[in-house]
Amino acid sequence: MHLFLLFYRLMVRPLLREPARTLLTISAVALGVAVVLAIDLAGAAATGSFRGSMETLAGDNDLEVTASGGVPEELVGTLATLPYPMRVSPRIEDYAVIADTKKSLPLIGLDLVAGASSHAQNASKFGDELQAQWASKQTLEHLGDNDSVWVGSSLGYKTGDQVPLLINDQIHEYTVRGVYSDSNGNEAAIVMDLSAAQRALRRYGRVDRILLKLPENSRLEDWRQRLRAMLPAGVEIRPQGAGTDENRRMLAAFRWNLRLLSYISLVVGAFLIYNTISVSVVRRRPEIGIVRALGASRGVILFAFVGEAVCFGLAGAFIALPLGRFMATGAVRLMASTVESLYVSSRPGPIELSPASVLLALAIGVGVAVASAYSPAREASEVAPIEAMARGRREYDARVRKGRDLWLALILGLAAAAASRAPAVAGKPLFGYLAAILLVVASALAIPFFVALLTSFSSKLLGRLFGVEALLASRSLAASLRRTSVLVGALSTAIAMMTSVGIMVGSFRQTVLFWMSDRLPADLYLRPAGVPAADRHPTISLELAQKIEKLPGVAVVDRLRAYEISYEGMPATLASVDSQALRRYPRSNFFSGRRTDQVLAELRDSNAIIVSEPFSYKHQVRTGDSITLSLGATQATFRIADVYYDYSSEGGTIVMSRSTMLRYLPDPTPSNLAVYVAPAANVETVRAEIEQAAAGHRVLMFSNRDLRAEAIRVFDRTFAITYALEAVAVIVAVMGIAGALLALVIDRRRELGLLRFLGAATRQVRKLILIEAGLLGLLANFAGLLLGFALSLILIFVINKQSFGWTIRFHWPMEVLLAALTVVYAATVLAGLYPAQVAVRLNVLEVIHEE
Amino acid sequence: MRGVAGGRNLRKILTGLRTNMPMLSLQGISKDYLTDGQRVPALKGLSLNVERGEFVALVGRSGCGKSTLLNLAGAMDFPTSGTVLLDGVATSSLKDTGLTQLRREKIGFIFQSFQLLHTLTVFENVELPLLLAGKTNPREVARERLAWVELDGLGERYPHQLSGGQMQRVAIARALIHSPGILLADEPTGNLDTITGNVILELLRRLTCEQNTASIIATHSLEAASLADTVVKLRDGKIEEIIRR
Ligand SMILES: Nc1ncnc2c1ncn2[C@@H]1O[C@H](COP(=O)(O)OP(=O)(O)OP(=O)(O)O)[C@@H](O)[C@H]1O
Ligand SMILES: [Mg+2]
């Protein structure tokens, strides 16, 4: 008890006496923890609980039968007539958009007729409500109707309502025949009878998945083997939800990278706690000496300062809880759009502040606080009682061993260089991360040396340039070398992270722009209206393609078709190109350096394919290798003719010629059309003609310029969250600077008061503090830029390459960097305003007589 | 030495011609402090004139108001009632810039605990007031002032490389750098041993004479009192006795 009383008197009370500074430190910690919490919560909501939208109304099954491009419908009959007590549920799975609200929903085709009649045996097949409806006489009449749909109750429709649905490129009116409850595990979706769905999607003779429910207590693997033998080679039979697992695995990597980014703010926060506790130890050295002389043990002193940090950590974590919860709502939106445009269609779940996340926040807050406070706290515990009588400050500062630290920094830098050459571990760039961490530590160690060097060289010069205030400012920074270094370290780390991610994203963007410049040779592109997502490939009616082909101004129409497939347990896109018309571009998009027409000529009518760089990297295949793909009911081997640069999806893409694809997957409807305008024709005229021809079809038309702009828009949206994370890190750092300058002012109040005695005007005192802030900012910007450059190399060439397989060209995004650094610099100087005001308002008489 | 002395006499005459005003004039000043709503009278209606070249010792028991008086005299604080005239100017009539100007030109401060800046060398400490006032080439002046306090050659050292007596001499050199009309010292020997303290007092006394400043030294030291032209005895915020020699 008495210990706590002492703790309150000696540690808490001083904190309460400087509320502004205490608050700043706590807010910095709170912000750092909140970001981590927000990303964790948002990650859990946007990806963690990822359940493919397509699992809606799938119920509990054991196995699923799938095939690239769809499962032949006959197999449903084959499986259903097997003499096994097994439930067979074929499904059509796609997306529909409610035309008037533009809401995009899963469209699910179920075998309602069979389901309703066999209702008794399949008690758990669908939601109870829906079953009851289907069993009822009235509904039975409509089961087979082509315009009947059942919808999730959250959509707000009533039985009998009309819903206009956009499916592929057409809108039709459907009648709601019933509503099912979509609250418990089921998402809102549009449900149709299987045959109605096939008709609406023009997916005749095929279903997307067949779910199998095995008898109780059967061994999954045995059944899988047994059924496998009866199915054609190209068809895959696997545990239900394997596709969801694949996606989940892919998303896990994405989430992991975001989580790492969110730790940046925490690292900056840790620097600041370290700084706060260090300051607290330095300025109270004589006091510690007195308390030691009065009988306090080392342990008590250690406890006191670690305790101070724990207070900061706890207070910060408690603020972080609501703050993080709040920030998560924004993060979820950003993340969901990234997931949608880069990975798979999914709907973010609710954000839940579970007891686990509360504990996480507390653990992180306190953990970071204690870890960063430990070293200064230990130093405090080593203060000898004799220091009560001595002037401690100078000796203490002399203890920064900048020479030794510089050597250590060099060694760590070399280690980082070595680590950056190591390969990925299990697909994760662990050594890349290690290299980045080593670099950050190395820079923190090297900073004291450079701060000392620069301030000692510059103080005379600064004095001459900016007057005596600058001389005083640079001297005081050099004098408290340790504190200055920690501050510069914190701010420069934040700046470095910002710069490196900025350079990485900027380089990536530039690479994509450059790459796109010869990727879109056609004049106009068409795709079905609806919500674009990486894993959706709605189709355009064949008639429309034919109609466009016949237009006078059109030279050639390329039909592109894409399917989402699974290769070696990872999702991938399978695409076909028509390649009738090819325009030449000077640059090659291929690893081999060959021209596009040469490569595509090789693909025509042969089992040759090209794969995208991420695919090649993920599956460790290269030009000349052969891979086996399951297509429709068959399996076939393809030779990789080349690898091409591609930045449009992370999962990887396989491209074959249209004729080759049609041999395996005979559905001729294209997903996209690329229109080449005849040399003599005017693009705008042709565009108008196509628009006329497309009446009744919901398609969107883009010029190649529109498409590029759209791609860049998607790109920017995708990376918006990384910018947001960096901004927070910088805010934390700037808050830290404000807090630290405040501490500096309070510590040096005697000196500042003295200056007033010696004839300094208030303006000069303010200038002094602002110059200190400016110098800190300058040093930090300089160090941050250097470190950031090094980190960006690791990000681009190691971490990014190893986790996504993209080759990115290095590029300095000058405008962005300049703007960002200016903002940071201005923020740093502005952060000095409040401390400067405090300095000006000091009671001169009191501070000078205090000691 | 002789040159300095000659100059002193000339200046004395000139100042005398220019103004009949004393350098410092306290006219019926009182000072109350407010602590927790309670009025604590520190000075109670006190008047005093100090001329240039006059060396005044301010003595009295602890708490009698010595520091308070010095603060008022240095325009660092203002009386509750009464007027403080510094070289003929009422301090309470000045705004912040005027006060800063006044400090830069007319006042030199010396403190019990020296108050040197650890981060600056001796030279830089001494030059500081001139630099703050925007003067450009203060090094020569600083060198001269250090010679006055007999610290030639220590200019490049840092304060922590000096003894207490040396530090106080640096502080004196700094206080005199701008040739102030008035020098205010609050227990300048309080942190020094008796012998060193006496040396400092001798130095102050000599410079007061040579530089023709008005000096007020708050002190507990009897030695100081014996050196002074004028001894002002304070008791409970009032002047108990003025002894002139
Ligand atoms: N800021 C203040 N607030 C309230 N009372 C004060 C303040 N400063 C001084 N006093 C009071 O005014 C009176 C005079 O104080 P002052 O510091 O002038 O004494 P002093 O003669 O300098 O004493 P010492 O020789 O101990 O330095 C004392 O009673 C003191 O308690
Ligand atoms: Mg006093």
Structure description:
The complex is a heterodimer of chains A (851) and B (245). Chain A has 851 residues and is an alpha+beta fold. Chain A contains 28 helices and 20 strands. In chain A, helix 2 runs antiparallel to helix 9 (242-283). Mean pLDDT of chain A is 81; it is low at 119-125 and 390-398. Chain B has one domain (2-244): Rossmann fold. Chain B contains 8 helices and 10 strands. Chain B has a 6-stranded mixed sheet with strand order 6-7-8-3-9-10, with helices on both faces. In chain B, a hairpin with a 2-residue loop joins strand 1 (24-35) and strand 2. The longest helix of chain B is centred in the C-terminal third of the chain and has 18 residues, at 194-211. The chains are: A alpha+beta (851), B alpha/beta (245). The interface between A and B is medium-sized, with 28 and 28 residues. The structure holds adenosine-5'-triphosphate (ATP) and magnesium ion. Adenosine-5'-triphosphate is lined by residues 33, 35, 40, 42, 62-68 of chain B.
Give the number of domains of chain A: 4
N-to-C series of helices and strands of chain B: HEEEHEEHEHHHEHEHEE
> Which ligands occur here?
adenosine-5'-triphosphate, magnesium ion
Q: Biggest sheet of chain A: strands, sense, closure?
A: 9 strands, mixed
Largest sheet of chain B: 6 strands, mixed
Report the β-strand fraction of chain B as a percent range. 25-35%
What is the C-alpha radius of gyration of chain B, as a whole number of Å? 18 Å
Number of helices of chain B: 8
CATH topology name of chain B, in short, is Rossmann fold
Number of strands of chain A: 20
Number of helices of chain A: 28
Class from secondary-structure proportions of chain A: alpha+beta
CATH class of chain B: Alpha Beta
Instruction: Show unreliable segments of chain B.
Output: 1-18
Trace the largest sheet of chain B across and list its strands. 6-7-8-3-9-10
Please give the most extensive interface between any two protein chains, plus how many residues each contributes. Answer: A-B, 28 and 28 residues
> Distance between the terminal alpha carbons of chain B, to the nearest Å?
25 Å
Mean pLDDT of chain B: 86
Tell me the fraction of residues in β-strands of chain A, as a range: 15-25%
